[in-house]
């Protein structure tokens, strides 16, 4: 028993053996809360007091919650950045959609019209045939 400078009993922190910690962690994996009889059995089997087991579980739950909260925050940041990335990609697609949805300029040269029609065809169909006007204006045979 240690005494402080006033002669009062000084609280000492218990140190647990590796075997005790292993058994406590294994039990914690199975259940985060122990009822009275379970706590008493575990304390007896490990040579600890019920109070020590109770406090160990309280501290371990606090550590578990902090870790879980940090993991959730990291996952949320990752999701938010992915959402922003996809939103940015969607904004770029909108620019392409603007070109896609513009009416064709009848004064544009045939090559530009053919490229735009080809682009629209690739985006809008899944394998149908595209009929482009022949360069001289005749319909295909």
In short:
With 141 residues, the chain is mostly helical. 65% of the residues lie in helices and 0% in strands.
Q: According to CATH, what is the topology of the domain at 34-74?
A: Arc Repressor Mutant, subunit A
Query: What structural category do the secondary elements indicate?
Result: mainly alpha
Q: What is the CATH class designation of the domain at 34-74?
A: Mainly Alpha
Q: How would you name the CATH homologous superfamily of the domain at 34-74?
A: Homeodomain-like
Low-confidence parts: none
Proportion of beta-strand residues: under 5%
Instruction: Summarize the amount of helix as a percent range.
Output: 55-70%
Keywords: DNA-binding, Homeobox, Nucleus
Subcellular location: Nucleus
GO molecular function, one term: DNA-binding transcription factor activity, RNA polymerase II-specific
Biased composition (Basic and acidic residues): 77-90
Structure description:
The protein is an all-alpha fold and 141 residues long. The chain has a domain at 34-74: Homeodomain-like (Arc Repressor Mutant, subunit A), CATH 1.10.10. It has helices at residues 18-30, 36-46, 50-101, 110-124. The protein starts with 17 loop residues before the first helix and ends in a 17-residue tail after the last helix.
């Amino acid at each position: 028993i240690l005494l402080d400078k006033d002669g009062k009993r000084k609280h000492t922190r218990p140190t647990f053996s590796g075997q005790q910690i292993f058994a406590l962690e294994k039990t914690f994996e199975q259940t985060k809360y122990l009822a009275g009889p379970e706590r008493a059995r575990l304390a007896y089997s490990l040579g600890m007091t019920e109070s020590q087991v109770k406090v160990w579980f309280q501290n371990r739950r606090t550590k578990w919650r902090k870790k879980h909260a940090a993991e959730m925050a990291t996952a949320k940041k990752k999701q938010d950045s992915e959402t922003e990335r996809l939103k940015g990609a969607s904004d770029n697609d909108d620019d392409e959609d603007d070109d896609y949805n513009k009416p064709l300029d009848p004064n544009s040269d045939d090559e530009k019209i053919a490229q735009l029609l080809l682009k629209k065809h690739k985006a809008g169909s899944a394998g149908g045939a595209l009929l482009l006007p022949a360069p001289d204006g005749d319909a295909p045979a």
